[in-house]
Design brief:
The chain is an alpha+beta fold and about 160 residues long. It contains four helices and seven strands; from the N terminus they run αβββαβββαβα. It is about 30% helix and about 35% strand. Strand 6 (about 110-115), helix 3 and strand 7 form a beta-alpha-beta unit. Helix 3 packs across helix 4.
Length: about 160
Amino acid sequence: MAKQFRQRGGFERQKPEFEQKIIDIRRVARVTKGGKRFNFRVTIVAGNRKGDVGVGMGKASDTAGAIEKALRKAKKEMVKPKLTKEFSIKHETEAKYGSSVVMLKPAKGRGLIAGSSAKIVLDLAGVKDVNAKYLSRSKNKVNNARVVIEALKSLE
């Protein structure tokens, strides 16, 4: 049935321009005279696995609206680091964002070695053969994703 629908010129799902992964969803509250008003804050990493990657944060009364806003901000704040032909980085780099510190090292033939947010950011950027190490004790996923973006910016 679906095949017949497509043959007659029906809707065919297209692949999105950027892949996205949600790294954080929080319910946040604003206290007013009438009580607490709840919103959702969503943090997204978006990338095309060809070098473009960005982190965005959005807030709305429902998660779908927050995801839409976060994706729009991630697209607006995209970075395109210079990568080698093998999709690795050229040299070792370090970056700091808030209390998060990360070190990225090229690791030829070893694949992507990273933890939590760093793995998501580097994977969606299309980076391969890199070793990422957090030098801080920060467990904040949002800051950890942003510090990896800062490290990639320093490669531009």
